[in-house]
């Protein structure tokens, strides 16, 4: 049997304003594990002459419907569809009460209201509210919510939470305890939330710039209070930063964050009541890495920033998702950067774009940041909408400058506060504030794909003139030219920065034509031209620069991204040459010498040195090929890793020794310097562990693994040993599991590190680990740690015999009905079968058709498979 009715697509062009508004919603939840009763009273008004009210609803048991105190009669007054409730011939204005039941315990999809690990919790974005009650479940219907939660056993659920302010509590005649919440801000249903459970509570306060006191509350699993302090600080930092940089203050008297163990994604910005995956709240030094801390801070910031960009101004329809997500990721990135590691953050953001977003843009699910067609909305929470969306906002920031951009933000907020807006509303505010015409820039919102720019330089000594010709091409033939800001640096051969008169003050060239020429005069020798400083546009750059030029850039460019990128170019050239020639990989001496110098000079930022040593991933290299030579890429990357380990052995040891005291400095444990030192120690060890016979390495691996106070170091050592298949790997894995078996978030690292070993044995290993007590099919974090990690272990996933595919597909089948969102995430790496020109193509097509024929195929999977096989 195949899907009975194929899920239907929705189109952006079909947008129609709702025929009804729902001004208030009064919800009563009688919480019960398997039969929660929901009573929903709405004040509804007609907006046009539509006679019938059609509400969304899925997996609900309808009990009764009352309209203005009249109990309605089924079939005569209303009709229940599979995904809707239609009320016939409604008046212009009325009160409607719907009573229905739901089963939170059976809800393994974790969408709507579910009960997991003893906690009732909800997730409504994008379309989960319709799994709680019948409603106009679309983001342009804004209502004021009052929510009352009832429980029979108060001891079991001491905390009953919803959006807004707690307004009343009591006990019913039947002995049910209840708590009532009221949120004064009209909001779409996707921002609604309820939570009921027993938690430890961490409280603090924040005083806004206007002097209002806000109560801050973190609800965490019992016994985990000491792991919530960092997140609390991050929240206060976010609140302060948004006031200082964007002039935006918090608007309610209370801000709550609940950390739950079962959650499909990172976190959710429900008004006044954020629900977080515990992974992005709980952190202490012994159990969380520096990167975990940084992630906690970023996600706390992200959800907080949504209060303005998302909640106060929401999206008119889901095609506008990037309006809130792209902008909020941009704000989150700026927040993180302002915390002190701007260059490091920028490079990491670029890596995500290049390995994941460019890949998505090159595959069957490619979409513009404002897509035109959607089957399952949950499939569109993508690197394109989020990260490329942020890059597009960043380009505006680059073009307009901070001051004008902020003026545009103020305008956007003044014009749209309290409304459901579109991407065009945002652009219009930016146009009005800047006086610039953004018509061509708007194409970034409607055209998918990654533009590629090519740069040609021509220097005339006689005229002392440099002529630069830049052209743009698109991987999507129908695309019109983009408006591309190209920030550049000009360097003399000796590395001095040059500022010819034609170079704008902000060093940003604007490419708007398919091909454009820029001239720079007064240059007495041929300069080095370095385009795309700070990765000023999400484009590929067809690089034809000479080795000498690249080396000059690595040494002298002002912009850290340019220096890093030039080194990446050199790695990439070596990899491509090795693949093309089928021979051994060689690295230019100048590169090795440069890396040696950076490792041993005490002045370079160790975090940036660590990033220079980070070689491209197999996935990243694969993205550069039209047809992917899997094994050749695998071999070349292995050789590159080994070549660096061998070539830099002495300097890697020296750098590790030099930074070890700072890395383990207890006084400055969380300083930027200590974090950077640990980054470099981990990176060094990651190479050194390839030198399996070295006693010096063996000793340092052990020493670092024993640095119990810092998970960054302990896990860094473990990863180095495991990924290099060092003889210490097995014993360290066993010790680590023994020490941390009680802590699932730490055990996720243990699962992930084994799933990412670049060796054929990883398939059997992952198989075996699905049976391990640390693994749990019903928990998304466990599945992501083991199986999503494996799905990015490129050469193993794409093993020629199809064993990697079989492993992933059996997981997807298992999760198809249980949790489609999680299943859908695992599917993505299998979609791009056209990129393999060998037996893999057939294998992939076969597994996709098998999945396509599965009974009850989830729409999430259906959409991706259809796109892929089309
Ligand atoms: N807005 C949520 C994501 C919801 C995903 C729904 N499948 C988290 C965030 O972006 O902040
Ligand atoms: Zn978001």
TrEMBL record:
Keyword Ribosomal protein: no
Segments forming domain Peptidase M1 alanyl aminopeptidase C-terminal: 548-869
Every Peptidase M1 alanyl aminopeptidase Ig-like fold domain range: 449-542
Matching Pfam families: DUF3458, DUF3458_C, Peptidase_M1, Peptidase_M1_N
Reactions catalysed: Release of an N-terminal amino acid, Xaa-|-Yaa- from a peptide, amide or arylamide. Xaa is preferably Ala, but may be most amino acids including Pro (slow action). When a terminal hydrophobic residue is followed by a prolyl residue, the two may be released as an intact Xaa-Pro dipeptide
GO biological process: proteolysis
Keyword entries, A-Z: Aminopeptidase, Hydrolase, Metal-binding, Metalloprotease, Protease, Zinc
Cofactor(s) it depends on: Zn(2+)
Domain Aminopeptidase N-like N-terminal: residue ranges: 27-191
Family annotation (InterPro entries): Aminopeptidase_N-like_N (IPR045357), Aminopeptidase_N-like_N_sf (IPR042097), PepN_Ig-like_sf (IPR038438), Peptidase_M1 (IPR001930), Peptidase_M1_dom (IPR014782), Peptidase_M1_pepN (IPR012779), Peptidase_M1_pepN_C (IPR024601), Peptidase_M1_pepN_C_sf (IPR037144)
Residues of the Peptidase M1 membrane alanine aminopeptidase domain: 230-444
Keyword set includes Protease: yes
GO molecular function terms listed in the Swiss-Prot or TrEMBL record: alanyl aminopeptidase activity; metallopeptidase activity; zinc ion binding
Function: Aminopeptidase N is involved in the degradation of intracellular peptides generated by protein breakdown during normal growth as well as in response to nutrient starvation.
NCBIfam families in the record: pepN_proteo (TIGR02414)
Record PANTHER family: PUROMYCIN-SENSITIVE AMINOPEPTIDASE (PTHR46322:SF1)
Protein name per the record: Aminopeptidase N
Species the sequence originates in: Aliidiomarina taiwanensis
Lineage: Bacteria, Pseudomonadati, Pseudomonadota, Gammaproteobacteria, Alteromonadales
């Amino acid at each position: 049997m195949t899907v009975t009715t194929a899920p239907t697509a929705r189109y952006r062009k079909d947008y129609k304003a709702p025929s009804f508004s729902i001004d208030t919603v009064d919800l009563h939840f009688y919480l019960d594990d398997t039969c929660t009763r929901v009573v929903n009273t709405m004040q509804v008004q007609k907006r046009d002459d539509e006679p019938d009210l059609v509400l969304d609803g899925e997996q609900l048991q309808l009990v009764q419907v009352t309209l203005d105190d009249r109990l309605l009669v089924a079939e005569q007054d209303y009709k229940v569809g599979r995904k809707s409730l239609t009320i016939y011939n409604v008046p212009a204005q009325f009160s409607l009460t719907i009573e229905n039941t739901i089963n939170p315990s059976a809800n393994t999809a974790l969408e709507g209201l579910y009960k997991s690990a003893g906690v009732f919790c909800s997730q409504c974005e994008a379309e989960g509210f319709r799994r709680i009650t019948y409603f106009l479940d679309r983001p342009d219907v804004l209502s004021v919510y009052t929510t009352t939660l009832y429980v029979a056993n108060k001891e079991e659920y001491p905390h009953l939470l919803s959006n807004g302010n707690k307004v009343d509590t009591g006990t019913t005649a039947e002995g049910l305890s209840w708590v009532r919440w009221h949120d004064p801000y009209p909001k779409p249903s996707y921002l609604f939330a309820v939570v009921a459970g027993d938690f430890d509570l961490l409280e603090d306060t924040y005083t806004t710039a206007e002097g209002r006191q806000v109560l801050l509350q973190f609800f965490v699993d019992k016994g985990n209070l000491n792991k919530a302090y960092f997140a609390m600080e991050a929240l206060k930092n976010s609140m302060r930063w948004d006031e200082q940089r964007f002039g935006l203050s918090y608007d309610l008297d209370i801000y709550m964050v609940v950390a739950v163990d079962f959650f499909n994604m990172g976190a959710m910005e429900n008004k006044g009541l954020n629900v977080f995956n515990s992974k992005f709240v709980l952190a202490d030094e012994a159990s969380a890495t520096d990167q975990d801390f940084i992630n906690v801070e970023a996600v706390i910031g992200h959800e907080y920033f949504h209060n303005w960009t998302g909640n106060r101004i929401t999206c008119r329809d889901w095609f506008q998702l990037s309006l809130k997500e792209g902008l909020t990721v941009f704000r989150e990135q700026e927040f993180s950067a302002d915390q002190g590691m701007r260059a490091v953050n920028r490079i990491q953001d670029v890596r995500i774009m290049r390995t994941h977003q460019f890949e998505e843009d090159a595959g069957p699910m490619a979409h513009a940041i404002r897509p035109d067609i959607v089957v399952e909305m949950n499939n569109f929470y993508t690197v394109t909408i989020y990260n490329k969306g942020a890059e597009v906002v960043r380009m505006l920031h680059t073009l307009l400058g901070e001051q004008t951009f902020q003026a545009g933000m103020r305008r956007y907020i003044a014009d749209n506060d309290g409304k459901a807006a579109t991407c065009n509303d945002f652009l219009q505010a930016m146009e009005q504030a800047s006086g610039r015409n953004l018509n061509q820039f708007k194409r970034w919102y409607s055209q998918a794909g990654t533009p590629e720019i090519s740069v040609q330089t021509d220097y005339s000594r006689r005229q002392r003139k440099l002529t630069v010709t830049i052209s743009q091409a698109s991987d999507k033939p129908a695309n019109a030219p983009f408006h591309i800001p190209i920030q550049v640096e000009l360097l003399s051969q000796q590395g001095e920065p040059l500022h010819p008169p034609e170079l704008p003050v902000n060093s940003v060239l604007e490419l708007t034509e398919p091909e454009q020429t820029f001239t720079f005069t007064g240059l007495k020798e041929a300069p080095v031209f370095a385009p795309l400083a700070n990765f000023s546009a999400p484009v590929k750059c067809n690089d034809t620069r000479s080795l000498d030029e690249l080396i000059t850039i690595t040494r002298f460019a002002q912009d850290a991204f340019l220096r890093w990128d030039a080194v990446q170019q050199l790695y990439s050239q070596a990899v491509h040459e090795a693949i093309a020639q089928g021979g051994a990989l060689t690295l230019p001496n100048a590169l090795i010498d440069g890396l040696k110098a950076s490792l041993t000079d005490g002045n370079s930022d160790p975090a940036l040195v660590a990033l220079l040593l980070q070689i491209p991933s197999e996935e990243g290299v694969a993205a550069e090929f039209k047809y992917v030579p899997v094994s050749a890429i695998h071999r070349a990357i292995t050789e590159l890793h080994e070549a660096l380990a061998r070539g830099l052995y002495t300097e890697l040891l020296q750098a590790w020794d030099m930074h070890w005291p700072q890395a383990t400095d207890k006084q400055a444990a969380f300083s930027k310097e200590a974090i950077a030192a640990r980054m470099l120690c981990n990176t060094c060890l990651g190479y050194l562990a390839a030198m399996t016979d070295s006693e010096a390495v063996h000793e340092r691996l052990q020493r670092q693994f024993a640095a119990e106070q810092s998970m960054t170091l302990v896990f860094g050592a473990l990863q180095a040993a495991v990924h290099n298949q060092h003889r210490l790997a097995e014993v360290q894995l066993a010790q680590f599991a023994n020490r941390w078996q009680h802590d699932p978030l730490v055990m996720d690292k243990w699962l992930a590190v084994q799933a990412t070993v670049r060796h054929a044995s990883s398939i059997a290993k992952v198989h075996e680990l699905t049976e391990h007590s640390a693994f749990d099919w019903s928990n998304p974090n466990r599945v992501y740690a083991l199986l999503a990690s494996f799905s990015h272990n490129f050469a193993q996933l794409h093993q020629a015999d199809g064993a990697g595919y079989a492993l992933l597909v059996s997981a997807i089948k298992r999760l198809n009905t249980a949790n489609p969102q999680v299943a859908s995430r695992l599917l993505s790496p299998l979609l791009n079968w056209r990129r393999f020109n060998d037996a893999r193509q057939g294998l992939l097509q076969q597994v996709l058709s098998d999945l396509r024929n599965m009974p009850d195929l989830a729409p999430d999977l259906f959409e991706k498979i259809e796109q892929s096989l089309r």
